[in-house]
Every structure is written in structure tokens, then in C-alpha cells.
Amino acid sequence: MRYYGLSLSNCVKDILNGEKDINDVILIITGTHITNRESLMLVAGIYMLGYWQGHPLNKVISVLEALFFAGKILQPRVMRIDPPNIAHGHWIDGDVSDIGTFLNIIEARHSGETCEV
């Protein structure tokens, strides 16, 4: 199964913990503002203090670089748009058939509503 993620910290934690395979990630939409490798390393350092604590730094960086340089991290804040709300979970089933349905799911989650696929 393939997935869209809605939180860099939580999704990477799931990958590091072996709960999700990095190859099953279609895209992660996140509230970060990473623009280059330097800011990617800054995020890694900060998140290592909490979310990813206990994981080897080289493994964290490997996962982050794989996602970032493959274009699998979408950052609405870079475009001055609010990131999605993750109150209802941070993974969306990748079987969503079209972008319109996907955007409806994101909007529904942001507003706290439910949405049928």
C-alpha cells in the first residue's frame, strides 16, 4: 500500500521505527520551511532532540535526504500557505484516485470534518 503523509516529524518517525517503508511514501506534506541541505540538516538536528531521539543521525539524514531530494516533501509554508491539520492522523491511503479527491480529504481533515473517498 502507498501513502501520503501530513507530518514530516511523525512520518519520518514511522519510517525510522519500521512502521512504514520509505518506498511506500508517495509524498509528505509538511509544515516545515526547508529550502536547501543546510536547512534540512537544521531540521534534523532539532527533531533529533525529540521526535527522532534514539535513532542514529546517519539513518535520520539518509531518510530525510532520500525524501527531500526525490521531491517527496511538499511544504506549503514555502508558498505561504498553511500546512494540513494532522489532528485526525498523519497518513492518507495512497489509493486516492485523483488529485481533486485528495485535496477534498486534506480540506476535510483541516476543518475537522470527515470525507468519504
Write the layout of secondary structure elements.
Elements: E1 3-5, H1 8-16, E2 25-29, H2 37-48, H3 57-69, E3 73-74, E4 91-93, H4 99-111
Parallel strand pairs: 1-2, 2-3
Antiparallel strand pairs: 1-4
Helix pairs in contact: 2-3
In brief:
This protein has helices spanning 8-16, 37-48, 57-69, 99-111, and strands at residues 3-5, 25-29, 73-74, 91-93.
Structural features, described:
This protein has four helices and four strands. Strand 1 (3-5), helix 1 and strand 2 (25-29) form a beta-alpha-beta unit. The chain has one domain (3-111). The mean pLDDT is 82. Helix content is 40%, strand content 11%. It has helices spanning 8-16, 37-48, 57-69, 99-111; strands at 3-5, 25-29, 73-74, 91-93. The chain is an alpha/beta fold. The longest helix has 13 residues, at 57-69. Strands 3-2-1-4 form a four-stranded mixed β-sheet. The two termini are 16 Å apart. It is globular.
